[in-house]
Amino acid sequence: MLIAALPLLSNADMSVPGSAEKAKTVVTELLKTTKSWDGVEYRAYPKGQPEVSIMRYTIPPHSALPWHMHRVVNAAYVLSGHLTVERKSDGKSLVIGPGDVLPEMVDAAHRGVTGDESAELIVFYAGTPGVPLVVKAE
């Protein structure tokens, strides 16, 4: 319900009573898409009880995550560092950095690779209970 109310907050008077200035909440849309970063359309969400998971990942410098897949729609927000995201099937890649938002792939093998600096991301998953967020790719 809070997420649905956020657009209403953009014009809300958030000033403290008695203060000289009226502060306004600023809402910036970071991502709105029906496709993953490689252009593949998302299919329907899994059936059943919705479950939202939010994970913080810190990936050390000079690291390559194992090839993996996600079974549910998810999106990453880069807090710091840079990450090269690679698709296993053809090597297509994308470099993301601080402030970037990445709509992740579903059911497609990929990985992230860091360079000389670590990368820190927050990933938001929209799944159902019992469905793993990450599975090893074959």
Plain-language structure description:
The chain has 138 residues and is mainly beta. It has one domain: Jelly Rolls. The protein has one helix and nine strands, in the order αβββββββββ. The strands form three sheets. Strands 1-8-3-6 form a four-stranded antiparallel sheet, with no helix packed on it. The termini are far apart.
Tell me briefly what this model is.
The chain has 138 residues and is mainly β. 6% of the residues lie in helices and 33% in strands. A four-stranded antiparallel β-sheet has the order 1-8-3-6, with no helix packed on it.
Q: Topology of this structure?
A:
Blueprint: H1 2-9, E1 51-59, E2 68-69, E3 73-80, E4 83-87, E5 93-96, E6 101-103, E7 110-113, E8 119-127, E9 135-136
Antiparallel strand pairs: 1-8, 2-9, 3-6, 3-8, 4-5, 4-7
Quick tags:
138 residues; mainly beta; Jelly Rolls; 9 strands; disordered N terminus
* Quaternary structure classification: single chain
Q: Cα-atom Rg, whole angstroms?
A: 18 Å
What is the helical fraction, as a range of percent?
Answer: under 10%
C-alpha geometry: globular
Tally of separate domains = 1
What is the CATH superfamily classification?
Answer: Jelly Rolls
The separation of the N and C termini measures 39 Å
CATH level 3 topology:
Jelly Rolls
Low-confidence regions: 1-6
Strand order of the largest sheet: 1-8-3-6
Strand content: 25-35%
Mean pLDDT: 89
Main beta sheet: 4 strands, antiparallel
Number of strands: 9
